[in-house]
Amino acid sequence: MKHRIVVKVGSLAVTDENGGVNPSKIKNLIADLFELRNHGYMPILISSGAINSARGLIKKPDEKKMMISYQQALAAVGQPILMKTYIDTLSEFNWPCAQILVTHEDFKERKRFLNIRNTINRLLENGILPIVNENDTVSFEEITVGDNDQLAVMMTEASDADKLILLSEADGLFDKNPKEPDAIQFKEIDFRDDFLNVKIAAKTSVGRGGMDTKLKAVRKLTPLGIDVILGSYLHNKAVSRLLLHQGGTNFKGNPVREKSRRKSWLSTLVKNDCYVIVDDGASTALTDGHTSLLPVGIKKVQGKFKRGDVIQIRHKRKVLAIGLTEYDSSELNLIKGKKSAEINDLLEYIHSKVAIHKDNLLLKKDEL
Fold first, then answer.
1. Taking the model in full, what pTM does it have?
2. 48 annotated as belonging to a binding site for a ligand
3. Which of 183, 234, 296, 338 is the 20 to 30 Å CA partner of 124?
4. Is 136 one of the annotated binding-site residues?
5. 309-355 pLDDT tens trace
6. d(CA 132, CA 206)
């Protein structure tokens, strides 16, 4: 039986800290994946490293406002450099690969999401390794996936994979910085764990993510019934040893896997750190009445998001639900706390009478 797995590698797993691709790191990774392929696995690779591959080839700007275009230019130069190394290495194994570059918009729009799924299926059926990365050249704040941990989550759901393996410097989750001598490693964690007792260490000097983004990734997948394994790329056969439970941390998925594709699709699209805080009345209406969220019940809007993004709905410090918003963050800021009749005078275009429709809303206690 074939087992689909998504393997996400950070920048330092395939590049050098000072910049440039590291062919030996890539060869070790591919050799491991090839062996797993021969044992019935169908890997999908999420690879960071495009920006760091081109480090030093683009002059760094003095002005901070130019940093986005600098990063985009690095990605444009670095992505083909990174892919050439992958192609050259894979040719030694007679294993063809495909490049897939995506943005958050590609997963949010249902038709494009299904196109991604169909492409992945066709590639795997033909024995081709999909290599996926965020399209940093065209991404900007409103559409960016943000980090490849989030991208890995969305790709795991889209491809209907059995497991997600996240390779980082740390060999799993520890109760504090793993470099501290008394740090304790967690071997296995239940899908209901909230990680409140974990002191999260800082991210690496190169990657955009960190342990915080990895735990957010875990919390989106494990309630759906998908296992996530976090471990270090510094070991020989890094992926194989994690699948054999010889290291890392295994985040166990819900024993009852979510069967609704729409629910799992929405659950993995949630934008990190984007949410609305609702009042007591809205909280009661949502949890007891399964109603839509009205603008009048919103007290605060946090983060920058677009219409059609999936955001959290919070009451006080508790996440009540997630939902697909009918308005962007700036519009919601204008109409929060307002009755439906008042919205006409505040906005030029009225998309809906509700902020989040009940058909596009998943209550945490029921669905997540």
1. 0.81
2. yes
3. 234
4. yes
5. 899 999 988 889 999 999 999 999 999 999 878 888 888 888 888 99
6. 19
